[in-house]
């Protein structure tokens, strides 16, 4: 595993996309913190950037990378290497590089401009978000052999989780506002990792006005610590479940 | 050495392998022949564990290959069209495979020297011609002194000099007691190398015989003529 991971990591570094991504994140966050007069405002700006760009870059880069690794996978398979190891090494390599890019680009300014607790939660949730979207990319790319289709699926999933989902929840809430639907809405919000991350951050920041509808309800139900714990558990599930299914499918695939 | 027990594989509606049953023994050099799309490559990929048959088992040295990968240590595989990571150079690919195999045996660098790979180490895989890619594949196949060699159209795309070098290498491996499985459409090329012939059609085994037996039975002088004779007899 470590041996394969070494080659994957070297190869990712060579593409330079990850380095460009790190610089882009750093530019965003440094300018957000320097332009706003108070750190809390800057943080909300950074949060919004993170919730949009981190999933997009993670899901797209990982999908394209997995498709481009077809030859690499085929080459390794004729040697004494366990099939699942190849898939796990690819996943670990991509997750690591996206996470490191995030921590260097966003994590460092966070630690400088905000209090350590908030910075820590933001770093953890952003890193989880990167890994989650890498896992989603693995699932999307194992579903079809057609690269264009695979990338299409990835973009659709990102669009759904990053933009459509909160709107959908709000729409449902208005449609069924005569009924007691707070509980179903809470359960619904667990169905989107991006919303979960938003809730996680804003529970900490205590700015419920900016939380989006789902966040407001979430806070009402869980209070702070419970909400944190539950959100982290759900986020971890969002990594494990898509990756597990992609791994199962990869093990049964003909190459 | 390799037992293939009743394997069946479909690709969608297409039946690639149909209840195929074979035993491949050590020290034999076996030609795997048949028309295009008859299941040769599928059979090879099944032995390598790249294609997973729906039914049946493949036993390698007494071990079922299902969920097993260690047996591939003993196999050298040369694909029909070698596909390599495009951004890597020849040197990097070689280093990577050495690193992954992590074998402490002395490497066989004969082909490496004869093909002059050392002079091309900095070239990217993407820029290589088909023939050069085949040379890299052949070098990697023989490098780890495998007991079983699986060669899918080994000489296709190679220039005559390189093809002769490769043939000499195959002969040497046969003398050393390796099991060699070759597919090729150029039957005349196989003459003198192979000791057994396996003929597959539409995923089914049509024939598995020693070359001497085959020639005697059909009354012809070469493998090529015998096979053509058999095919004609079938269609009549």
TrEMBL record, chain A:
One Pfam family per UniProt: ABC2_membrane_2
GO CC entries: plasma membrane
GO molecular function ontology, one term from the record: ABC-type transporter activity
Keywords, alphabetical: Membrane, Transmembrane, Transmembrane helix
Transmembrane segments: 12-33, 45-68, 89-113, 119-143, 155-174, 226-245
Protein name, entry field: ABC transporter permease subunit
The species this protein was found in: Chitinophaga eiseniae
Automatic annotation (TrEMBL), chain B:
Coiled-coil intervals: none
Pfam family, one: ABC_tran
Gene3D superfamilies xrefs: P-loop containing nucleotide triphosphate hydrolases (3.40.50.300)
Domain ABC transporter: 2-227
Keyword Nucleotide-binding among record annotations: yes
Any GO molecular function: ATP binding
Keywords: ATP-binding, Nucleotide-binding, Transport
UniProt keyword Magnesium, yes or no: no
Descriptive protein name: ABC transporter ATP-binding protein
